[in-house]
Amino acid sequence: MTQMLGAGVPPTVLPVAESAVACEPEAQPQAAVESDGSRPLRGCFVTGTDTEVGKTTITTGLLHALAQHGLRVAGYKPVAAGAVWQAAASGTGGHWYNEDVEALHAASSIELTRSEVCPCLLEEACAPHLAARLEGGRIEPAVLIAGAHQLMPRCDVLVVEGAGGFCVPLVESEQFSEAPAMSEAIAATPNDTDWGTDDLAVALGLPVILVVGLRLGCINHALLTAEAVAARGLRLAGWIANRIEPTMPHAQLNIDTLTRALQQRHDAPLLGVVSYRAPVTAARVAEELDIDAVLEALNLRA
Predict the structure, then answer these.
(1) pLDDT tens-digit map of 24-55
(2) 3-state DSSP call for residue 2?
(3) Roughly how many angstroms between the first and final C-alpha of the chain, as a whole number?
(4) What is the C-alpha to C-alpha distance for residues 289 and 117, in angstroms, rounded to an integer?
(5) How far apart are CA 256 and CA 233, in angstroms?
(6) 169-181 CB burial, b ≥16 within 10 A, e <16
(7) What residues does 34 pair with on adjacent strands?
(8) For residue range 250-270, what is the model confidence (pLDDT) as tens digits?
(9) Residue 213 has what pLDDT?
(10) What angle do CA 63, 68, 71 make, to 5 degrees?
């Protein structure tokens, strides 16, 4: 476990002891909140074919579209790596800033603190398990799972965005994670198995929406990710094509191939094709999603 980085503390790498997170003073301490883990979550888990394929863009679009449909929605990014200290405009204080967390915070229709949106915010912009190791600690799975269950009573739909692709490591087994920065207390804690984003998705038990970044190789990446989702016993509820390269040749042919393959192999429908736009907004993305298909795929119809 790791020590919390307080929102009133300037950026620094700390030896951790509660959970490698950046938190706000108004957020409730993780151990102080009792969550009903027996209550099923309602919503979806958003994953992608790779990093930088637009998961956050699509997640904010889903949040906006569902909110427009009259649902109370909360965005949840359990782990984010890459934070900078943003000082307050006046006086002392400030908070840790991560672009993805800010986007989900803004797109949620219920009032949330940044720490509720992201209970584990790491300073280093790299793979989460490496960022945690560099900061002298490791990510605590129980904190990530509890964070989702703590939000559910306050919303109708929880949209969870994973980190990177579907199989990104979050916790290393100790035999692979020896590092001088790791504190003795952490190193002494038994941790004999790896644990990753796919394990988190299984623990949350939500249907999965796959974001496919349209670029060369996306067909293979999408089909492999879909197989990984199915192998973990999760339902692939659908997929969204995101045009991340405006000049990609034969983009529509790629979409057609994936539409057939994912429908035939996984009964996973296409839920929208998002155009390349700069700048992009949650409202614009929502316009290109098939909200009726999304509601059907996630069993959210009244």
Answers:
(1) 434 443 333 445 556 789 999 999 999 999 99
(2) coil
(3) 41
(4) 23
(5) 26
(6) bbbbebeebeeee
(7) none
(8) 999 999 999 999 999 999 999
(9) 97
(10) 70
Helix (H, G, I), strand (E, B) or coil at 51: coil
Cβ atoms of 119 and 30 closer than 8 Å: yes
Out of 19, 23, 62, 77, which one is annotated catalytic? Answer: 77
pTM of the predicted model over 0.90: no
Is 77 known to be catalytic?
A: yes
Tens of pLDDT, residues 229-249: 999 999 999 999 999 999 999
Q: For 234, phi and psi rounded to 5 degrees?
A: -100, 155
Please state whether beta strands 208-213 and 43-48 pair in parallel, antiparallel, or not at all (unpaired). parallel
Residues 6 or more apart from 230 whose CB is under 8 A from it? 236, 266
Asked whether the beta carbons of 182 and 133 are under 8 A apart, the reply is yes
Which residues, other chains included, contact 125 with Cβ-Cβ below 8 Å and sequence gap of 6+? Answer: 81, 82, 131
Distance (Å, rounded) from C-alpha 177 to C-alpha 183? 12
Other CB atoms within a 10 A radius of the CB of residue 182 amount to: 20
CA distance 207 to 227: 14
Return the structure tokens found at 59: 């997640």
In whole angstroms, give the CA distance from residue 135 to residue 33. Answer: 25
pLDDT tens digits for 100-151?
999 999 999 999 999 999 999 999 999 999 999 999 888 999 999 999 999 9
For the ranges 79-83, 173-177, 227-231, which has the lowest average pLDDT?
173-177
Retrieve residue 281's tokens. 């907004």
CA angle 63, 69, 71 (to 5 degrees): 65
Segment 193-212 mean pLDDT: 96
Q: Which of 87, 20, 77, 301 is closest to 204 using CA atoms?
A: 77
